[in-house]
Every structure is written in structure tokens, then in C-alpha cells.
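R.M. (postdoc): so does anyone remember the format we settled on? I'll just put the C-alpha cells first.
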């Protein structure tokens, strides 16, 4: 469903509250380019000012962005993690940034949004990317849902729930590029051993980079017939981003970040 433009101005205010998007960051230049493509979709569809920041490997840092907004006269902002699961970065790193910002800029009202995933629209985004490599839902085809993996068991369990809820395929199983098992290659081989005639990999990554490349190469070597590209700038992720912005802004008040 197409969302309506997000204006979200405050009474007496001067327009929409800015959105500070916080991406993971990567040394791979493709990642930042993909993040900007996605956020350009959000800007065009919502009318909201969206400012990009990165936790690591690329400037600017979210604290710098928030300081810059205060310097421009902003007194409110929505901070949104451009992350596909809630794990260490969204539970610890970004809240730490927000605590520091509140100490430095006590007049700045901060709203902290939820991660992009899980979300019901993610299945459509994953199937869109699979269709681009010639794969559509098929009861004879098994899917490996490949995520980065985390030391946080709850984050990995989220991927498992997504896989179990995804219908239209012979089977959908979770796999992890790091920190958890099975790996995507192991999952591909296990599905063939269980009788699958065709196995494909759905890449649950926001942007291209080391993990997405690793998953593609190892899964193809294990016999996967196709591997979808990273999700990137698809309409579903732009819609989810806008929805997370609205949810954060329309909450009862600025979200408390535990100290």
C-alpha cells in the first residue's frame, strides 16, 4: 500500500521533523551508494528531510549529524536505525549515541525508531529481488534466507521466525554469514540432501558488501541455482522507513533511552 506524504510538522513549527538515518557503514563504496539510493526514495515519497549517518567505516557519525542539526536551529529529530534486525548496534551502540547527544544538547527532543526488520513488507522485498534473478514462488523450490548473523540469539531467532512464516515455497530455512549456524552453504547442501530439486538464496542484507559477496560465492559453490542481490533501494524498504519514522514521531513523546 502506498503511503501518504509525511509532513509531521509540530504546532507552531517550521515543517517536518528531520529524520537521521543511521546505517551500519562499510569500507565498500557500494554500500554507501545503496543507502543513499534508498534514502532518496524516502525523500521523494515523503517530503521529509533525511540526513544520512554511519556507525562505522564512513562519515558522518550520527553524533556529528545531530550536532549539525542543532547548529541549524533544530530542536527535534527522529533517529532511525537502518538495520534489518534488532541486535547490538540498535540496542547498545545507537542508544549510547543518543545519551551523549542528550547530554550535549539537552534541548534537543529525540525520537528513536525501530529497526527496519522484521516487517510484513520484507517478504515482498525479498521476492522482488529473487524475481530479478529469475526466481518466483514455487512449491518445488527451496529458499535459504541468508542474514549476516549476530551474537544476539534474539536477532538470529527473528530470522528463523521470518523463514517459518514465508509461504509459497517448498521450504524456507534461515542461515547466517557469521556468528551462528548453519551457514548459507550448509543450508543449501542440507536442503538438497532433504530432497529439494532446486535451492535458491534470498539475501537479507541492506546493501552489497563483504557478507553479501561471501554468501553469494559460497552458496553458488554449494549448488544454489540463484542468489538474489541485497535488498537496497526497493519500494518496500522505502515504505518501511517512512512507516518507522511515523511510528517514532507519533509515539507519546521522545523515546527514553536507558542509561
Amino acid at each position: 500500500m502506498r503511503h501518504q506524504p509525511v509532513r509531521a510538522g509540530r504546532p507552531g513549527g517550521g515543517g517536518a521533523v528531520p529524520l537521521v538515518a543511521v546505517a551500519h557503514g562499510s569500507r565498500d563504496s557500494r554500500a554507501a551508494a545503496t543507502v543513499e539510493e534508498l534514502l532518496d526514495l524516502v525523500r521523494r515519497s515523503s517530503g521529509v528531510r533525511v540526513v544520512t549517518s554511519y556507525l562505522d567505516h564512513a562519515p558522518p557519525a550520527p553524533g556529528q549529524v545531530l550536532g549539525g542539526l542543532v547548529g541549524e536551529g533544530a530542536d527535534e529529530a527522529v533517529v532511525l536505525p537502518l538495520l534489518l534486525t534488532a541486535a547490538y548496534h540498535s540496542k547498545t551502540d545507537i542508544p549510547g549515541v543518543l545519551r551523549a547527544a542528550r547530554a550535549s544538547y539537552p534541548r534537543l527532543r529525540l525520537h528513536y525508531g525501530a529497526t527496519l526488520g522484521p516487517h510484513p513488507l520484507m517478504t515482498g522485498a525479498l521476492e522482488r529481488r529473487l524475481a530479478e534473478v529469475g526466481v518466483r514462488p514455487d512449491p518445488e523450490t527451496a529458499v535459504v534466507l541468508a542474514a549476516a548473523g549476530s551474537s544476539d540469539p534474539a536477532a538470529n531467532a527473528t530470522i528463523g521466525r521470518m523463514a517459518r512464516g514465508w509461504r509459497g515455497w517448498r521450504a524456507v530455512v534461515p542461515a547466517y554469514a557469521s556468528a551462528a549456524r548453519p551457514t548459507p552453504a550448509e543450508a543449501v547442501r542440507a536442503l538438497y540432501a532433504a530432497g529439494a530439486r532446486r535451492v535458491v538464496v534470498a539475501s537479507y542484507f541492506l546493501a552489497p558488501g563483504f557478507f553479501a559477496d561471501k554468501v553469494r560465492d559460497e552458496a553458488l559453490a554449494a549448488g544454489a541455482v540463484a542468489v538474489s542481490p541485497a535488498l537496497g533501494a526497493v519500494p518496500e524498504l522505502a515504505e518501511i522507513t517512512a512507516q518507522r519514522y511515523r511510528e517514532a514521531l507519533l509515539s507519546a513523546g521522545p523515546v527514553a533511552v536507558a542509561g
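R.M.: ...and that's the designed sequence above, right after the C-alpha cells. Also worth knowing: The first helix runs from residue 29 to 46. Residues 1-14, 255-259 have pLDDT under 50 and may be disordered.
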